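Input record (Table S2, row 272):
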Amino acid sequence: MDFLQYQESAKAIQNRLNGFVPKIAMVLGSGLGGLGDLVENPIYVDYKDVPHFKPSTAPGHKGRFVFGTLEGRPVAVMQGRMHHYEGYSYEEVTCAVRVLRLLGCETLIVTNAAGCVRTDWNAGELMLITDQIKLQSESPLRGENLPEFGVRFPDASHLYTPRLQTLARENAKKLGLLLREGVYFYCYGPQYETPAEIRAVRVLGGDAVGMSTAPEVIVAAHCGMEVLGLTLLSNMAAGILDQPLSEQEVLDAGAKAKKTFSALVRACLAEL
Ligand code: HPA
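Output record (hypoxanthine complex):
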């Protein structure tokens, strides 16, 4: 996509917003899209109605934006995201982030469900993402750089904004929630990892493993957005427990953690 096409996507959405300007973009992962239903004065825009966009096909993902206010803050909630495993290029996976940036978003809150790699943590717990590892496949920034968004070789020392990490820590404490902290390791799926792959991930420094987030965060940081990443550790990663992994387990965990997860995200939002 060239810059003009990003602008066309943004313009088409803007025409639906009656002057509303979102400041905080939120990407909600598997089973966590419910937060989007709490947005006040919502304006819904289906991905399929946005030029240059592809619909999201993953289960538990609605495939639309919800614009409105949450905790008094102007938000753009993505209920559903695109994944590489659905067949989308990384450019398609991350397109919405750039469009939301053009619409006015300065912050990205990104949530996901992921497998828990640490054997001393438990499924159902929440994790603050402090950094990420994406060693597999190409960068979403591969190809001609669009300088309107950012530089050719962007720094990645602080993809997850330290100030927002502090905010999440403080709010988890206030709410009495256990918030783990760790590194999100990206594996593009759609098959869950093998036990051997999980052992490799552990050696390489991953604490959670998942199929999303890392591409969007690279693109958000490239175009100057601050990022807060929160993970629901929906299941123990492959090989830790003597049982197969299933999508149902991930969705059930999302449903179960919905309340605490929403509470944490809302508390952080209120202070952004
Ligand atoms: N692996 C990869 N992605 C995931 C997992 C997992 O164990 N759980 C939820 N998303």
